[in-house]
Design brief:
By secondary structure, this protein is of the alpha/beta class. The chain contains nine helices and eight strands. It has an eight-stranded parallel sheet. Helix 5 packs parallel to helix 6. The protein is globular and about 45 Å long. The N and C termini lie close together (10 Å).
Length: 263
């Protein structure tokens, strides 16, 4: 079994064939999927999706792109929604200096609020980091001094230092289809340096389809391709990597119910 720890099943790309996409994931051996929140105020869409599928779970949070739009979202609001049975993570939140779609101070404010939510609930924080390695690392260090919180650096495409800091602080690192791209040698080197008990895989669907599907719309079934490359990087069989990343997922996403056939 594999887990797609990060996808966006509420996006319009999947509206017309969501049932078929979930079925294809199951057929490919993907036993659990987490559809990730990008706007707290649009949580009703996620609630409806996770209610429809036993093996699909969700998070609650505001993406850094929407940090300005949802600057008034409070910690209490996130905590209230996080109590719902199928909410298994906080986020995604973090910093994105590549697109800079929201003021950086509001991104940081939102990031720290979500860290507080992860610390309070014990649910893992899904961190988005792009072109902001130094500031992400600084905030993680500062907030970790106040108290521990579980987290994952999702769709990792940053430098080796942020990966090192993340692991040092107890975090996990998740790799997407970017890992399979021909020009991702440096990223594969970073993936090789991450301890096997801190690795996860994801699609970030509908974005970043792995080879041989690059350029197409991504979907959860394609996580198999990324996991295969991650296994090669670590010199283990695909089955061993599937077991490791699945075990890691259920250790980190402890609120998520593990299917009986994956125990």
């Amino acid at each position: 079994m594999l887990v797609d720890s990060h996808c966006h099943l509420d996006f319009p790309d999947f509206e017309a064939e969501r049932d078929a996409i979930v079925d294809r994931a199951r057929a490919a051996g993907v036993g659990t999927m987490v559809t990730i929140s990008t706007r707290v105020r649009q949580f009703d869409r996620l609630r409806a999706i996770v209610a429809a599928y036993d093996d699909v779970w969700c998070s609650i949070g505001t993406h850094p792109h929407q940090a300005g739009e949802e600057a008034d979202v409070t910690l209490d609001e996130i905590l209230r929604i996080a109590e719902e049975p199928k909410v298994v993570a906080i986020g995604e939140a973090g910093l994105d200096y590549f697109y800079d779609k929201a003021p950086r101070d509001l991104q940081a404010q939102g990031f720290r609020t979500h860290i507080a939510a992860a610390g309070t609930t014990g649910l893992p924080l899904v961190i988005h980091a792009r072109d902001a390695d130094e500031d992400v690392a600084t905030i993680l260090r500062e907030e970790s001094e106040k108290g521990t919180f579980p987290f994952i650096l999702h769709c990792f495409s940053s430098g080796p230092e942020l990966a090192r800091v993340g692991v040092e602080l107890g975090g996990y690192v998740s790799f997407s289809g970017i890992l399979t791209f021909k020009k991702s040698e440096a990223l594969r080197e970073i993936a090789a340096s991450v301890p096997r008990d801190r690795l996860l895989v994801e699609t970030d669907a509908p974005f970043l389809a792995p080879l041989p599907h690059r350029g197409k719309r991504n979907e959860p079934s394609f996580v198999v391709n990324t996991a295969r490359v991650l296994a090669e990087v670590h010199g283990v069989s695909p089955e061993e990597m599937a077991q490791a990343t699945t075990d890691n997922f259920f250790h980190l996403f402890a609120k998520c119910r593990r299917p009986a056939d994956a125990a």
